[in-house]
Amino acid sequence: MARAVELRLLRYFVTVATERHVGRAAQRLHMTQPPLSRAIQQLETEFGAALFDRTPHGVELTRAGQVLMEDAVPLLDQADRLRLRVTRAADGAVLRLGSLADTADQAGHDLVAAFRRRQPGVEITVVETDLSDPTAGLRAGRVDLALTRTPFSDDGLAVATIRTDPVGVVVAAADPVATQESTTVAALAGRTWIRLPDGTDPVWAAYWTAADDRPHHPLARTIQECLRSAAWNGTLVIAPLSQALPGGLVCVPLADRPPSRVVLAWRASQPSPLVRSFARLVSGAS
Amino acid sequence: MARAVELRLLRYFVTVATERHVGRAAQRLHMTQPPLSRAIQQLETEFGAALFDRTPHGVELTRAGQVLMEDAVPLLDQADRLRLRVTRAADGAVLRLGSLADTADQAGHDLVAAFRRRQPGVEITVVETDLSDPTAGLRAGRVDLALTRTPFSDDGLAVATIRTDPVGVVVAAADPVATQESTTVAALAGRTWIRLPDGTDPVWAAYWTAADDRPHHPLARTIQECLRSAAWNGTLVIAPLSQALPGGLVCVPLADRPPSRVVLAWRASQPSPLVRSFARLVSGAS
DNA sequence: CGCGGGCCATACCCGTCCGGTATCAAGCCA
DNA sequence: TGGCTTGATACCGGACGGGTATGGCCCGCG
To answer: How many whole angstroms separate alpha carbon B262 and alpha carbon B150?
Structure first.
């Protein structure tokens, strides 16, 4: 006893829960009622809790059953998709697209949609990463393509520009800088900047934070953390002017930072046909 | 053959993949090597694809194996958490918190964190919903509490105000309205508003869209869709002034719309002790 | 008021499948 | 080449999943 939960039992459970009737559920599962009853009991002893209330005209979910139902359904959905994804991967028909947190925006969605139209048989996985990895898993081999921003150390990587984003510094609306038409990083010397995690691409970290590696600067992994820190602590961070900002924050253009480019990147060495095909969407379009 | 994939096999697979060695994996799984080899083969025939390349000193993942690994790990994580969640639900120690898309902000996180400190043994599930359901599953019984905004039809619901948000209309920066200090819904008569899905709470829909139920108005389910439509098509939507906006959009205060309140809502009839306890966090605080 | 029909649970049987031991085939290295 | 490693194969026993037959319960009907 106390064996691990298996998908078979969860499939049974979900069927019974939707049918609210063990007999009918058994019918739908192409089996007889008694083993199904037993399976449900197994699940109940497994969890140490009743999942159904037995009524004269069927069964109905207990509170624990409701919770299990909410968890089991998406779990089974994932498990079903799993088979399809793996078989497609085996045929080389899977493209893994890394996406830097904020870059999964309209441009990214459009690209994915365009590629799906062109090659409907190809499965596309989008993996989002935080600010600590500008190449979004591309170097580590976790993805085939990365939707990201410059600048980063790009040795061994090929890039195609999607668009160019001027950048600015994010400050609270009450900050003296906020009213200026534009400013410079130099003029902000001595202020507290956000800090990116150790090990982050140095080119990348230097661009966004004007880092002088003072360790007391607050650490952030996501844009949300950066903005929150800007709103509460008055810390500085550089962001694209197109970045969505909560009320109370403004983005003042920076004159001495070149714009950041939103790019598609991939490993330059022997790209797969799918990667080439996807990359052409960008190179051809812009 | 072609039996459904089971978690047992996936657990085996993940262990082998992390160990890169069938023998050691078998050891960690408290079993012998041959059945494990067979299990992996089963999985491979099941998917119709090789998952490992066999090398003289172990095994290494094929591309299909990598994809399966990425899917299997989170799947197993979920399955493990499942047991814990259900047992807690059985003890009445689960609180399901619905959250309207944008309301899962700082206030929400603070509330959840505060409640966790007070009652560490209680599992909290946060379910996000789109704009079509202002009560975030509260009426349907999918959640015990809802973090949402007024106004909505609140018969049978109890609410506690968290904060008050003035609202404005979101327009492109180039829109003539954008430069005004404030405006009114009346002054915007005849313009195209966003439309919320049919069946949405009428009080709610009327508040945010100044709807005159013209069916050609574009449909939106999320705030992102609203903002995108505002940026591209110049459609109007009402939003809290605190809403984060991408560059190129501004939110002009509205003089003839009362502010929206961010509230915690729950079913007024016989709330559970946990619900009362959570609600007190809000009532006591503000 | 008992009787029939619906529900789920129990009892028991059989075939399959899982995991064990023993062994084999193949690559590396001394 | 012989010993060591690796994973793969062959075969066996026990556990478990699903089958049939039946029991216990509640409802409604005659």
So the answer is: 7
User: Per-residue confidence at A211, pLDDT binned at 50, 70, 90?
Assistant: low
Q: What is the pLDDT of residue A41?
A: 93
The answer to whether A117 CB sits below 7 Å from nucleic acid chain D is no
Nearest to B195 by CA among B219, B178, B171: B219
Residue nearest to nucleotide C22 (CA to C1'): B34
**pLDDT under 50 in chain B at which residues?**
286
What pLDDT, on a 0 to 100 scale, did the predictor assign at position B43?
92
Does residue A27 lie within 7 Å of nucleic acid chain C, judged by its CB?
A: no
Q: Which residue of B has its CA nearest to A89?
A: B64
Do A223 and A271 share a structural domain? Answer: no
Residue B1 lies in a domain: no
Q: Within 7 Å: CB of A32 and strand D?
A: yes
Q: Please tell me which residue, B103 or A113, carries the higher pLDDT value.
A: A113
Structural domain contains residue A2: no
pLDDT at B286: 43
Are the beta carbons of B125 and B94 closer than 8 angstroms? yes
- Give yes or no: residues B244 and B104 share one domain: no
What's the CA gap between A126 and B70, in Å, rounded? 12
Report yes or no on A1 lying in a domain: no
What count of other Cβ atoms lies within 10 Å of the Cβ of residue A71? 20
List the domain range (segments joined by +) for residue A60: 7-89
**Nearest Cβ partner for B68 among A47, A48, A86:** A86
* B240-284 per-position pLDDT tens digit: 888 877 767 888 888 888 999 888 999 988 788 888 888 888 876
Nucleotides of chain C within 7 Å of a protein C-beta? Answer: 6-12, 18-23, 27-28
Tally the domains of chain B: 3
Do B148 and B176 belong together in one domain?
A: no
pLDDT of residue A286 exceeding 50: no
Q: Are residues B144 and B15 both part of a single domain?
A: no
In a domain, B108, yes or no: yes
Same domain, B158 and B132: yes
Q: What is the DSSP letter of A191?
A: S
pLDDT category at A33 given cuts 50, 70, 90 is very high
Do A55 and A176 sit in the same domain of this protein?
Answer: no
Rounded Cα distance between B261 and B134, Å, is 12
**Separation between Cα atoms, residue B195 and residue B205, nearest integer Å:** 8
